[in-house]
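Take a look at the protein record below and tell me what you see:
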Amino acid sequence: MEPAETGFFWPVRVYYEDTDAGGVVYYANYLKFFERARTERLRAMGFEQDTLRAEHGVLFAVRSVQAEYLKPARFNDKLQVTAEISELKRASLSFTQEIRREGPAGDLLCQASIRIVCLTADMLRPTAIPDFLLQRIKDEF
């Protein structure tokens, strides 16, 4: 399978620890896979979350998740996880994400819409996304 049509994807291998007794990925672990892809998307844009916290006093937190589980991923599957920005606001951004099985069919296994909010690192209150980051995200959007 070619990389995701959206342009950004993160490869994930399903380990035994990701699965339940039946060898199927436990539903909550899809959220971990989505998190990894969002983190790597920011990293690809040149931003490390620990640096944003230490140097700029902001962090990101999940505000809402809407997920659809379509087909199961199984032990040892190779997956591709996308992380595309679908909406940008002053203090939040939304991602449309997909998990597909690598291979000729590229089966869509799970899709989600995830809203992330920018918070102050000290008080955990909503705050505007710093201008330098907001502009970089706009350039990608």
User: Anything to note?
Assistant: Helices lie at 27-44, 49-56, 131-140. The first strand starts at residue 9 and ends at 13.
